Amino acid sequence: MKEKDRRSKNASVTTAKGRGAEARGGGRHDQKRSAPPKGGGFKERPARPAAAQTAETREKPAKHTPAQETPARVIARRTGEKPAERIPLILETSDASGYHLIDSGAGEKLEQYGPYRIVRPEAQALWPRSLPDSVWEKADAIFTGDTDEDGMGRWRFPGAVLGETWPMQLLGTDFHGRFTSFRHVGVFPEQLAHWSWVKDQVERAGRPLKVLNLFGYTGVASLIAARAGAEVTHVDASKKAIGWARENQQLARAENLPIRWICDDAMKFIQREERRGSRYDIILTDPPKFGRGPNGEVWQLFDHLAAMLDICREILSPEARGLVLTAYSIRASFYSIHELMRETMRGHGGRVESGELIIREGGLDGREPGRALSTSLFSRWVPQ
């Protein structure tokens, strides 16, 4: 919802996912790559066995005490057959216009974001670098400081000092890249696999699909879905992240797209949607390990994930196209969230496909297939 845990320890930056405006981390895998499909920048395959936007649509939650636990949800035991399964599924982001992973190794990664080459810590890069140090030393920006996923640090600019933001484009959608104090840059490119899937579902639907983007961060997924024709509800607890999302919307010249930007605690929002009888055709959810909502609500992934998915099932429409969960920086196998998703969707038919999101090295030009860097776990329910 990678690299991913993008949550800040700074209360002013914490978000709805509890997701502060930044932080993430990942699990890992390796897979052989063929040429990426035209225009997609990603491919999908099973691994080998082993209406115009409202001006300021905001839900106004009730007042709470500073550190409030989300009320426990009693999850009824569901009956019926579990959905079919497809595992493991590796979703790969390789060369994509606007982004590619150049090289990785020695606990770091060298990436191309638009015009800039950027070096950031990457604990999963256990191997030696492929390219010489002279290439890495020519990076435009290098993150230094705490190598923890949510650790603070600073950016060093070996050449000219760069501004906080720069223009980016992925899947035809413009947005800002951004240097943050938590190593992240306002976008998680491994999510291109999910975004391309959502775009395809929306374009083929023959009707406007309703998409809910929980823990939506800086809004790139919401903009891509809306541009494809969806009616989008974007939820994040961070006012700062919502502000960045609106800046991205303006840069993308997408002010008239049907997007509701909602600053709220994710769990409280979907609980109200369940009571209202609201329904969505696609739900994207990318929760952090830990976070706080705007009124001190506490999110703990292992404590609250099952309840969150249970509510998400209830607010799926009868003709839903999918429920997508991404999990970063957790000590778990994809099997854990895979079995949870199958239990959640028991009796609902369809198929649950789970695995990892990976990014493939592409060398300096993005076209020299190298090693795979795993970034996160995911599980996705789809109707068969």
UniProtKB/TrEMBL annotation:
GO biological process annotation, one example: methylation
Compositional bias (Basic and acidic residues): 19-33
Span list, region Disordered: 1-89
CDD domains, sorted: AdoMet_MTases (cd02440)
Pfam families: Methyltrans_SAM
GO terms for MF: methyltransferase activity
Annotated InterPro entries: Glyco_hydro_b, SAM-dep_methyl-trfase, SAM-dependent_MTases_sf
Residue intervals of the S-adenosylmethionine-dependent methyltransferase domain: 164-294
EC number per UniProt: 2.1.1.-
Keyword list, A-Z: Methyltransferase, S-adenosyl-L-methionine, Transferase
Identification of the protein by name: Class I SAM-dependent rRNA methyltransferase
Organism: Ensifer adhaerens
